[in-house]
Amino acid sequence: MGKPIIYLFEQLNEEQVETIRQAAPEYIIIDSTRKSPQMIEDDIEIMLGWNADLGQRLLASDTSQLKWVQSISAGVDMYDLDCFWEKEILLSNSSGIHSISISEHVLGVLLSEFRGIRTSITNQEKQKWTRNNISYRQLSAQKMMIVGTGHIGQQLAIFAKGLGIEVYGVNTSGHPTNGFIECYSHKNMSRIVNEMDIIVNIVPLTDDTYQMYNERMFLAMKSGTVFVNVGRGASVNTSDLIQALYAGKISFAALDVFEEEPLPEDSPLWRMDNVLITPHISGLTPEFKTQLLSIFMKNLKQFLTDKTLSKNKIDLRQRY
């Protein structure tokens, strides 16, 4: 084996790469987005970002030196977490980077619906001055349930409270979390969703959250519920959501993530007036790479010290 490699799948500028090089002089730094020297793949010890083809080869290799992967996303359901556990490979995510952007996105799509802005945009395209087809409601005093009370959920709760929204939370155990009037467990969620006006999904994808929004859950909601999904697409059974929209259980859905992406052109969701589709953009964040590098460098310093991570380490058994 040669010198260990830090392999970068996220393109960084020269100054950022030099920061890594100075912190880890014993490593070869290879940027996959630029022309690089020949390497032995098994010498890769650290990866910033993930490439499925290369990643699978490393996971299948008995001589791979891979020890740690820093994910550029908060969700980690695209990784073979069982294999990571078996091979004792560390995994960290970028949780916290997207909190403000996703929170602003959620409030933006809600205001566009509650204040009639979506309809006004359509009227403008038709050069149509009318109030007859514009409905409007007060967002203040609505009851919002945020499903997922991590970094993003807590930030959204802060912003929502500033608009006078009553904020409740759902997490794995129902443990109290700052910023929420009350929190409930996933298993008790279906018992209290009928008290909520707005449901915002931000949960990571696990065995427990896979298609948790299904016919049973939608039927438990009160008629006219507003549903926002900025979590994981596979947490929602799309067919059941469509039926809930047709039946009026869901009066409006703002969807940024889907079971299948891109959303197929023949999906009924495209043609539904009470649906707002965005192409997985809620997490797009200015200065993303600067914030990502901050997490990576803190973890790199710790890893070089004792082969552990100090920030955003994934519990491979819990899967988040």
TrEMBL record:
Molecular function terms, GO-annotated: NAD binding; oxidoreductase activity, acting on the CH-OH group of donors, NAD or NADP as acceptor
Alphabetical UniProt keywords: NAD, Oxidoreductase
Pfam families referenced in this protein's UniProt entry, alphabetically: 2-Hacid_dh (PF00389), 2-Hacid_dh_C (PF02826)
Domain of life: Bacteria
SUPFAM superfamilies named in the record: Formate/glycerate dehydrogenase catalytic domain-like, NAD(P)-binding Rossmann-fold domains
InterPro entries: D-isomer_2_OHA_DH_cat_dom (IPR006139), D-isomer_DH_NAD-bd (IPR006140), NAD(P)-bd_dom_sf (IPR036291)
Domain (D-isomer specific 2-hydroxyacid dehydrogenase NAD-binding): residue spans on this chain: 108-282
Domain (D-isomer specific 2-hydroxyacid dehydrogenase catalytic) ranges: 7-309
Family statement: Belongs to the D-isomer specific 2-hydroxyacid dehydrogenase family.
PANTHER family cross-referenced by the UniProt entry: 2-HACID_DH_C DOMAIN-CONTAINING PROTEIN, D-ISOMER SPECIFIC 2-HYDROXYACID DEHYDROGENASE NAD-BINDING DOMAIN-CONTAINING PROTEIN
Name by which UniProt lists this protein: Hydroxyacid dehydrogenase
Organism listed in the record: Enterococcus quebecensis
